[in-house]
Amino acid sequence: MRIILLGPPGAGKGTQAVRLVERLGIPQLSTGDMLRAAVAAGTPVGLKAKAVMDRGDLVSDDIVVGIIADRIEEQDAKGGFILDGFPRTVAQAEAFDRMLADKGLKLDAVIEFKVNEGELVERIVKRAKDTEARGEPVRKDDNPDVFKTRLEAYRNQTAPLSAYYDSKGALKTADGMRPIDEVTEAIRGILGR
Description:
Layout: E1 2-6, H1 13-24, E2 28-29, H2 31-41, H3 44-54, H4 61-71, E3 81-84, H5 90-102, E4 109-114, H6 117-133, H7 144-158, H8 160-167, E5 171-175, H9 180-191
Parallel strand pairs: 1-3, 1-4, 2-3, 4-5
Helix pairs in contact: 2-3, 2-4, 3-4, 4-5, 6-7
């Protein structure tokens, strides 16, 4: 299965991706990890990315899609993959769709986690307090002000993906405010497994 998880930061995408990896036996693909691996491996796309990053510039959508194109050819991704955090923009989604079509592949599901943003901020504050109480370091992005900035960026850049995938008939939604196990069951229902 080829799955994209959409939703604002803190919606539970990462938690559910881990559960999907375990249940479906397919990898969760992180564009950041893939980018670093391609650079380290010295692949043609990795070398292009390195040159761009060495200049201090952002890696283009074409390079990111090229890295994903290479990664999904690896054996562990032949049966599918989970993307969380990509695509971030409609332009990336369009480029990704073209790449999949060139390979004769298509997405099986795009699942958006619907959340209440006010409650989401409370969830992040609670997560930070719980982490601190366990004596673990708190993620930098679990600061409410940083989180609100990330939420705003999501609204401006990534939220339009909902309409894009909905217009293609690919978008399914899950209530990301439900307890974790209930969200897992909702996703199981969406995927039919």
